[in-house]
Specification:
The complex is a heterodimer.
Chain A (H helix, E strand, L loop, with lengths): L4 E10 L4 H12 L5 E6 L5 E10 L1 H13 L3 E7 L4 E12 L3 H13 L3 E5 L3 E8 L1 H11 L4 E6 L3 E4 L5
Antiparallel strand pairs in A: 1-3, 1-4, 2-3, 5-7, 5-8, 5-9, 6-7
Chain B lengths: L2 H11 L4 E4 L6 H9 L3 E4 L3 H15 L3 E5 L3 H15 L4 E7 L15 H5 L5 E4 L6 H13 L6 E6 H5 L23 H13 L3 E5 L1 H5 L3 H11 L3 E3 L14 E4 L6 H9 L2 E5 L5 H4 L10 E6 L13 E4 L2 H16 L7 H12 L14 H11 L5 E4 L3 H9 L8 E2 L10 H11 L5 E6 H5 L5 H6 L5 E6 L4 H10 L15 H7 L3 E5 L4 H12 L3 E6 L45
Parallel strand pairs in B: 1-2, 1-3, 3-4, 4-6, 5-6, 7-8, 7-10, 8-9, 10-11, 11-12, 13-14, 13-15, 15-16, 16-18, 17-18
Helix pairs in contact in B: 1-2, 1-6, 3-4, 3-17, 8-13, 10-13, 15-16, 15-22
Classes of the chains: A alpha+beta, B alpha/beta.
């Protein structure tokens, strides 16, 4: 048995109703797992790009790609290898912070992680951070001591480096 | 033009002259147009039969079969037939009515999520939200269903879309950027495969349903003769190779011929064409063809390596790939006659000693004898359909097929109730050919209401009900693997099938003794009338089989052979202790 590894699969799909259901249904039916999926519009009109993070050995990865390719609404599928891929995630963290001291500490941590404060209320601060998932995890861990009210993460999206397809 | 008119026009533009359907509330606009149309409509008595009939039509003719059902229960009744077609890559178009677009999602009367339900059991499905989408949608549906790896396509058709007016343009484009089936095989792979084949001493060909779908039986025969390789088939591949040919081994797998199972175990090169390595074909995957390098030719790249590891994959249409393979081997072979003659001789000796016995004079009748008499009564171009279970496996095992598209059976999904409506569809597609359905008493009862259809439309199929008052295959497993605890497999009081047929105005006959089957079937076919033959068979007859999860050499049950030659059969002891003993 090959090693179980996390794979990033990028799929260019027709931007039509039901496409997400087709892809998600395929994963469920064939027993593939989805750790994460992001979908958004792409550089091409009427097309969306899905970034799917899945785990499995090489055989499973091969099947995932082949089965995705069989879907009529899926135009192109790529396995993005870690060496040749940049992967980013956006995360919004709402923190309970009333005292001046707490607030300034949160702002400092956010700055270190190149995050921004995007919303302030008398009781809360909301931090926006973008980066690789492990960087986001690190900031979340740091902010826990202040009392996190809510976290909203997009999950990673990815693109190949340089001129690679 | 109205949406409903566009449907009929588009179907006719695709060459459709007949559809199988059942109307309903949301289909009123479509059926109103059908009323004046010269498109022939066969009113089945259950939507499942519409789907199976369209499937039988497609399998027999190679053309796309069309079935229609209403929303909600109409669509769910179509589902079994669509899933059956999907598992066996049969090209059908299923059109289901849907509640009006304004009502979708409101749990309206007879609303069901047809798009969601049919997504995993179709090659692709569509929902028409505007009438002007219909012409392109139907053209795309036919293109998708009938190219690449064929399969069913479903269209969900809301009522208001059928009524909507639009301006029909003849020059519409279909745009499927994500659908480009591979047709030609990679030349490098073909060369590699050719070299491997020529190097091998014990090659075997395994032909699947893909050979029939790609119409490459002639190429298969040519390849087999060229390299002197015996040919075994899957259930779906039955008919792709003449089973009376010296190189034919018959069907492989769980209920396969002994010679096929043992020869595949021994071969050093297995050439697999248009086959998806079903568990019923391979048995325990780890022990499948343990000594062989495997070449896999398939139009669907996802089948390569899905169940069995492949040494040389070739993605492409079987006909095109086989043609280049034959050419390449032919060139490489010049001045090198190859060394498979010894293998071919060995196979023919082996085969002679493994021919299953089919003549029995017992009463109640042995199914083998019934099948022998069916074979003796019909031409090779007659189409036989089977239901699912013992009747199917007996037919697959004992019935000799020679011509593609003459043996129709639900392989992948194993749908009881398939045989009779599929025969109806096949007869409609090819009215000149004799069509015989071989069913069990269990499966036939699931669809018997469609006797009304064959009477109404005078579709002269002959239905042979092999009547043993058991759900035979499950009963067989209970006998073999569950200590003969016959839980709910005895059907007890089965109906009088002769009277049942007569109640529908269909001829009913009963057969109980050797010789009667041939006589009755021949007179039924001669009568040109739809006929049901109730065949009383021995409920204790068991077909030798490979227990689930075992290697295909581990056959249980007594394998009765035509010629007993003790000690001369080169049958090796199975490599494993049999757990089931």
């Amino acid at each position: 048995m090959d090693e179980q590894r996390s794979h990033v699969i990028s799929a260019l799909v027709l931007n039509k109703p039901g496409v997400l259901q087709r892809v998600a249904g395929l994963f469920t039916r064939r027993g593939f797992n989805i750790d994460n999926i992001t979908v958004g519009t792409s550089e091409q009109e009427n097309m969306a790009r899905m970034t799917i993070i899945s785990r499995g050995d090489e055989k499973v990865l091969e099947q995932i790609i082949k089965q995705l390719n069989k879907l009529i609404d899926v135009v192109k599928v790529r396995d993005l290898t870690p060496e040749n891929t940049v992967k980013r995630e956006l995360c919004l963290i709402k923190i309970h912070a009333t005292s001046e001291k707490k607030r300034s500490e949160v702002i400092q941590y956010a700055n270190i992680f190149r995050g921004r404060i995007i919303d302030v209320s008398p009781e809360t601060l909301t931090v926006e951070i973008t980066g690789a998932p492990d960087k986001i995890e690190a900031l979340i861990d740091l902010l826990r001591i202040f009392g996190i009210k809510q976290i909203a993460r997009t999950g990673p999206t990815a693109i190949s480096r340089g001129t690679l397809d | 033009m109205k949406g409903s008119e566009a449907i009929i026009k588009s179907l006719k533009d695709q060459g459709v002259d007949i559809v199988f359907g059942y109307p309903g509330g949301v289909l009123l606009p479509l059926y109103d147009v059908l009323y004046d149309s010269d498109l022939k409509h066969i009113l089945v008595r259950h939507e499942q039969c519409a789907a199976h009939a369209a499937d039988g039509y497609a399998r027999a003719s190679g053309k796309v079969g069309v079935c229609i059902g209403t929303s909600g229960p109409g669509a769910t009744n179509l589902v079994t037939g669509i899933a059956t077609a999907h598992m066996d890559s049969s090209p059908i178009l299923a059109i289901a009515g849907q509640v009006g677009t304004a009502l979708i999602g409101r749990d309206a009367f007879q609303e069901v999520d047809t798009l969601g339900l049919t997504m995993p059991i179709t090659k692709h499905n569509f929902q028409a939200m505007q009438a002007d989408e219909i012409p392109g949608m139907i053209k795309s549906a036919f293109y998708i269903a009938s190219t690449g790896r064929q399969g069913p396509v479903a269209i969900d058709l809301p009522k208001d879309v059928q009524e909507q007016e639009f301006e029909y343009k003849a020059d519409f484009q279909i745009d499927l950027p994500g659908y480009k089936p591979t047709r030609k095989g990679h030349p490098g792979q073909i060369k590699k495969a050719s070299n491997l084949i020529l190097k091998s001493k014990k090659p075997v060909i395994l032909a699947g349903g893909g050979v029939i779908l790609s119409e490459s039986s002639y190429e298969l025969l040519e390849l087999s003769k060229l390299i002197k390789a015996p040919v075994t088939t899957t259930l779906m591949g039955k008919g792709s190779f003449p089973e009376d040919d010296p190189l034919s081994l018959g069907m492989l797998g769980m209920h396969g011929r002994k010679v096929a199972n043992l020869v595949v175990d021994e071969c050093d090169c297995l050439i697999v064409i248009g086959c998806r390595f079903s568990d019923r074909t391979t048995g325990k995957v780890d022990e499948f063809a343990p000594n062989a390098k495997i070449i896999h030719i398939d139009v669907d790249p996802a089948e390569i390596g899905k169940n069995v590891d492949i040494d040389i994959p070739i993605v492409g249409d079987a006909k095109i790939v086989l043609t280049s393979l034959i050419k390449t081997i032919g060139k490489l072979k010049e001045g090198n006659p190859g060394s498979t003659k010894e293998w071919a001789d060995y196979i023919s000796d082996f085969k002679i000693n493994c021919i299953p016995r089919i003549s029995f004079d017992d009463v109640p009748l042995k199914p083998q004898q019934v099948i022998k008499e069916i074979r003796d009564s019909i031409d090779y171009d007659a189409i036989v359909t089977t239901d699912v279970g013992q009747n199917q496996m007996w037919m697959a095992h004992y019935f000799t097929s020679k011509i593609p598209r003459t043996f129709l059976s639900s392989g992948g999904l194993g749908t009881m109730g398939f045989g009779f409506p599929a025969a109806m569809g096949a007869k409609v597609a090819l009215p000149e050919n004799d069509v015989v359905a071989v069913c069990g008493d269990g499966g036939f009862l699931m669809v018997c209401q469609d006797l009304a259809t064959i009477r109404e439309y005078d579709i002269p199929v002959v239905v042979c009900v092999l009547n043993n008052r058991y759900l035979g295959m499950v009963a067989q497993w209970q006998k073999l693997f569950y200590d003969e605890r016959m839980s709910h497999t005895h059907l007890g009081e089965v109906p009088d099938f002769v009277k049942l047929a007569e109640a529908f105005g269909v001829r009913g006959e009963r057969v109980e003794k050797p010789g009667e089957m041939k006589e009755t079937l021949q007179s039924a076919l001669k009568s040109g009338e739809p006929t049901l033959i109730d065949v009383i068979i021995d409920p204790d007859e068991i077909l030798p089989m490979v227990p689930p999860g075992c290697g295909i050499t581990e056959i249980v049950g007594e394998y009765k052979v035509e010629r007993e030659v003790p000690g001369e059969i080169p049958y090796r002891t199975p490599h494993k202790e049999k757990e089931w003993e």
